Amino acid sequence: MTLETVEFWVVAVVLLASSLAVVLTPNLFHAVLYLAAALVATGVIFLLLDQPFLFAVQLLLYAGGVVTIVVFAIMLTERLVGERIRQTSRHLVNGAIVAAAVFAGVAGFLLQAPLTTVRPQRRLQEEPRDATVAIGRALVGPFAVTLLLLGVLLVTALLGALHFARGEE
Amino acid sequence: MIGLPSYLVLAALVFSIGLFGVLTRRNAVGILLGIELMLNAVNINLVAFARFNGDLTGLIFTLFTISITVAEIAVGLAIVIAIFRVRRTVEADRLDLLRG
After folding, report:
1. So what's the ipTM on this one?
2. How many angstroms separate the CA of residue B100 from the nearest CA in chain A?
């Protein structure tokens, strides 16, 4: 068992455990903290896949930005009511059945699909190990229009969020 | 050596867990957290495919989906807050304004 295998299994267990905690814990605030753990674990998986730049983006945008605004939303919507920030679940059995069926479908498809199991190590030695330079070149080259559209989308989402959250006055 | 199917099965598991959360949570914020988990699983898939096929496009797609997810969660939470202003609750079962 190599070091890479051990790393993968440790990160996988952490990711699955924190994901389960997100959907099962009764305290909504704890769920957000577990979500942060799951997002960081996903970032570590990006590291295992040799993508440190995506790891940084994941930490900055997801674990930093998303968790912060979700915490703010919980405080705005729950504290005002004065109730405990608990949440209950419904249809647990039905939800578990549907989720298990979706997983079974995806796993069955994976078993049949011809997938490459070997990492292309050869490319790594030719190219620099870090793909950040290539990502940057592609973002202003073939994907420049998409990047501009993404900027438009972010501005639109910002304006929309402001419009919704602004209130009546 | 960990192969591509391991990453894909892991992503499928996280996706299913997120789906379970979306289906079972009563709180609208909890539903959004489940959606976050599902989108996160998709990102694992994209990065794994990009790495194992030696293709850069999956990484660019991951950057785009991360940004779009952030925009989505911002608008979603703004809608939740707006709903809370009107209905004083974010329980999804009681949000039936559009019921005919």
Report:
1. 0.89
2. 23
